[in-house]
């Protein structure tokens, strides 16, 4: 199974991003996020001593995992009860992007992280990201997906970032089984699961004003809920990684 099964094989493909916070930070900084925000590894969601190393507040989490039969069946089951998302405009609690570029789930995850909540407020005016989000805001999901598909600035920044990292990058046409899902705190104070392969944004629950994306409640509503579903489906030792978008301290 690959992360682009819902994107036609005739669609263009990107070289997959390495699951590396330095690579991710490089890409979002190049697009227009200030250097005061960046991604950091989260080495544990249960050990307070390790969680203490993660800069707070956490504006978004990116969960990276191998696509499994459990994820597929859970996704299909939940989506079967939902209608296709049609939201647009400034009243949306979150901005959601449908994935139509093959092997671009990392890019879509990053965009979901930086396009919403507090991070969105810090996007540099006049940057490529600022222009992209302003253009995307009034559009419906199909036109938003087309906007990303046709964006030369996005494609160029992604290609530059894909060359970085500690391992040799796969080819754009390779089958890659890793998938990225973002958990963000929306402007409505709720935790949202944002996955470009779903029918739309998924609201997971209300957070208090002082609860960020890495708070106990957010973890229970998001990442831990996801891992519990995997465990119940026969994957108690799922290989996953997690990064947090938050402040950068020199």
Please supply descriptive tags for the structure shown above.
single chain, 250 residues, alpha+beta, Ubiquitin C-terminal Hydrolase UCH-l3, 6 strands
Structure notes:
The chain has 250 residues and is of the alpha+beta class. It has one domain (21-247): 3-Layer(aba) Sandwich (Ubiquitin C-terminal Hydrolase UCH-l3). Helix content is 35%, strand content 15%. It contains 10 helices and 6 strands; from the N terminus they run H-E-H-E-H-H-H-H-H-H-E-E-E-H-H-E. A 6-stranded antiparallel sheet has the order 1-6-2-3-4-5. Helix 1 packs antiparallel against helix 8 (152-162). The longest helix is centred in the N-terminal third of the chain and has 11 residues, at 21-31. The model has no long low-confidence stretch (mean pLDDT 92).
């Amino acid at each position: 199974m690959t992360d682009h099964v819902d994107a036609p094989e005739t669609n263009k493909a990107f070289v997959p991003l390495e699951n590396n916070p330095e690579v991710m930070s490089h890409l979002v900084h190049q697009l227009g996020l200030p250097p005061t925000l960046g991604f950091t590894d989260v080495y544990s969601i249960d050990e307070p001593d390790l969680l203490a190393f993660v800069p707070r507040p956490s504006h978004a989490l990116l969960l990276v995992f191998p696509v499994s039969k459990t994820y597929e069946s859970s996704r299909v089951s939940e989506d079967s009860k939902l209608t296709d998302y049609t939201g647009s405009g400034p009243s949306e609690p979150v901005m959601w992007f449908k994935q139509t570029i093959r092997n671009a789930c990392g890019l879509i995850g990053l965009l979901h992280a930086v396009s919403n909540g507090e991070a969105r407020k810090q996007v540099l005016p006049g940057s490529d990201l600022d222009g992209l989000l302003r253009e995307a805001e009034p559009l419906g999901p199909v036109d938003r997906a087309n906007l990303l598909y046709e964006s030369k600035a996005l494609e160029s920044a992604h290609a530059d970032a894909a060359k970085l990292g500690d391992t040799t990058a796969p080819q754009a046409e390779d089958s890659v089984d890793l998938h990225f899902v973002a958990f963000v705190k929306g402007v409505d104070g709720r935790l949202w699961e944002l996955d470009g392969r779903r029918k739309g944004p998924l609201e997971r629950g209300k957070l208090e004003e002082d609860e960020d994306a890495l708070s106990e409640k957010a973890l229970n509503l998001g990442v831990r809920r996801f891992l519990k579903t995997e465990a119940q489906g026969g994957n108690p030792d799922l290989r996953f990684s997690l990064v947090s978008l938050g402040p950068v301290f020199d």
